[in-house]
Design a protein that fits this description.
single chain, 295 residues, alpha/beta, Nucleotidyltransferase, domain 5, Rossmann fold, 2 domains, five-stranded mixed β-sheet, four-stranded parallel β-sheet, 9 strands, 16% strand
């Protein structure tokens, strides 16, 4: 395996490819942005020798020509090196092109296209910023301007990092986890929001009497976080009310991403606290410390 390929477990991985020509099977660069549990991003990119022509238009876009890939691995080798990492993570592409290019490149070298798990950050962006429809759209070029993203467009590693940032900003804006953002539409409520994870507290839990609500992006799934709280005696609510004693937010939401607003639950809790209600706002790490101290 290439020594620079990220190792470990990540929340999700954004993937982007550049192609040498108009053929989808002509991948000449693969970029990854691996999002860790604290939302730090580990980037990786590799050149690929597509074994085909380079069109001037494509080279002008990404700056890659045949001389750059002369010593690069062919697609089959590159995919083989990346497969252990990609096969165990959910992948994000910005539009459906990257999945189609991977499948076409597999077919061109006699490989079965891998059954990776894919989601589309364009769909996530449409959900988070519906006002951009007909107003520049949800391509990376417009999102770069609207969200003030800092990346070099048409570099596979940079575009993958931008797609990952779009997902992180969407999580923060909607107050939903990645799991909730990619849930099939049939699992959402009519308003497009995921059903809240609610739980009845275990009567013998050390934190009996506490009422907790979760918001934002957590490394735990909402299901697991709710189970953990309930086992320790905390009743789990879906909305912030006067009975709520704890609001748990994603660690990164304590320092708002790129100037974007906190979730509605977070804002309501801050307003209630300012009005004198006793409600504690804590990050996921603090929540985990709280429940572990009561084991």
């Amino acid at each position: 395996m290439h020594p620079m390929i990220p190792d470990g477990d990540f929340r999700f991985i954004a993937l982007d490819v550049e192609t040498a020509c108009s053929d989808a099977c002509s991948i000449c660069q693969i970029g990854l942005a691996c999002v860790a549990s604290d939302n730090s991003i580990y980037s990786f990119s590799t050149l690929v020798n597509p074994g085909t022509r380079f069109d001037a238009f494509n080279t002008q876009l990404h700056g890659i020509g045949p001389e750059h890939v002369a010593g690069a691995p062919r697609f089959g080798q590159a995919l083989g090196d990346l497969f252990p990492l990609l096969s165990r993570h959910h992948l994000v592409q910005h539009s459906s092109f990257d999945k189609r290019a991977v499948a076409a490149s597999c077919q061109s070298c006699g490989l079965e296209p891998p059954d990776f798990r894919w989601s589309d950050s364009v769909q996530i962006a449409r959900r988070a910023w519906p006002e951009l429809k007909g107003n520049g759209g949800h391509g990376l070029g417009n999102l770069k301007k609207v969200l003030r993203l800092d990346f070099h467009h048409h570099d596979a590693g940079e575009d993958a990092r931008a797609a990952a940032m779009v997902v992180l900003l969407a999580e923060a804006r909607l107050g939903l986890s990645f799991h909730d953002l990619i849930a099939p539409s049939g699992r959402r409520t009519p308003l497009g929001r995921s059903r809240p994870e609610t739980r009845t507290a275990h009567p013998d839990g050390p934190l009996m009497g506490a009422v907790v609500v979760f918001t934002g992006s957590l490394s735990l799934s909402r299901h697991d976080a709710a189970d953990l709280a309930a086992r320790h005696g905390m009743e789990v609510g879906g909305t912030v009310t006067k009975a709520t004693t704890h609001l748990v937010v994603g660690d990164q939401d304590l320092a708002v991403l790129a100037g974007h607003k906190t979730s509605s639950k977070h804002r309501k809790a801050e307003q209630m606290r300012a009005a004198g209600h006793s409600i504690r706002i804590l990050g996921e790490t603090e929540f985990l410390d709280l429940v572990s101290s009561d084991d």
